[in-house]
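Entry: Cytochrome P450
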Amino acid sequence: MSALSSSPFAAHVGKHPGEPNVMDPALIADPFGGYGALREQGPVVRGRFMDDSPVWLVTRFEEVRQVLRDQRFLNDPTAPSLGRSFDDSPTARLLEMMGLPEHFRPYLLGSILNNDAPDHTRLRRLVSRAFTARKITDLRPRVEQIADELLTRLPEYAEDGVVDLIKHFAYPLPITVICDLVGIAEEDRPQWRKWGADLVSLQPDRLSTSFPAMIEHIHELIRERRGALTDDLLSELIRAHDDDGGRLSDVEMVTMILTVVLAGHETTAHLIGNGTAALLTHPDQLRLLRDDPALFPRAVHELLRWCGPVHMTQMRFASEDVDIAGTKIRKGDAVQLILVSANFDPRHYTDPERLDLTRHPAGHAENHVGFGHGMHYCLGATLAKQEGEVAFEKLFAHYPEVSLGVAPEQLERTPLPGSWRLDSLPLRLR
């Protein structure tokens, strides 16, 4: 049974003909074609969320950027300006269907991802100290060291000459880097990877055990670290909590660690996986990289546009009536931004279906919404770009004859709404 068919959300698909549901198997199997077709219907399309509640799907590049920078659209479904109780929101129904007890609600809603100004600004300022451009640049030798060590060991895991890059490189690289930054011990990192997989699975039986275990683990880390502060992010958050007038609550501190670790490795791992598969199936583009290594930074952006792992944002809610491309979004309405259709919008890109690592001039490569836009632009974007550059450059330097271990059509993906991720990536190293 697939993750989709066993999901508690799947029962809602098809109840409203003519209104696309984000759980529709056809949309999940082919989001490029499916959401592309919706984009050509219009910039704003009426659809249905996982719990079958109505949602506006914003599909085109300019309109997606417009909403992302418009602070009238809120991430917090409990915001007083929305004029409704949390229990009436799609987020409440989502949590109920996930099978999580109510007392875990603050750890989900307290995330920096779910906050709006001024709380979002305050939280972002606290955690951004770990993600400054200078700190990320200083971190690069460590990222390269980790990549070299992992790639050197890849042949140890080969079976019949084939090794899974997702399991043995794409995941271990970013989880090691982000756990180094945060201050999570090496022996705990495999457990974090499992927890991350459980969290994105949408399976209540997995969530109901893993999420509480994650929360308790972070509380235990905080208790331990208070006795021996260091220079990692966890210690910085403890100092902000203990010494800075209570600007950071216990729940906020735990939620921040939870968010940074999970967001800091899941998406990067699948950018590496998706990007490697794309390059191996586009030998002309891979040849460009081999001939001109200065293209790697631009390549990461084009790969993020063309096969990025995140295909839609979390829901936003209109705090007042707003007009988007002639469609009236009413106060309280839910809005979902479809990144995958925006990143292939022919109104913005010439020949968007083509993978072209030279598409944009150097210095102007980030002409996509893969990292978002505006106030909620991805906090870890600089780190993710650096890890992508290092991963691709090191992989093809270590194994210049690497190839897919199966036919491209045999690559299997996890059927999750809004996500594009490989279950595995079998490679032949020589």
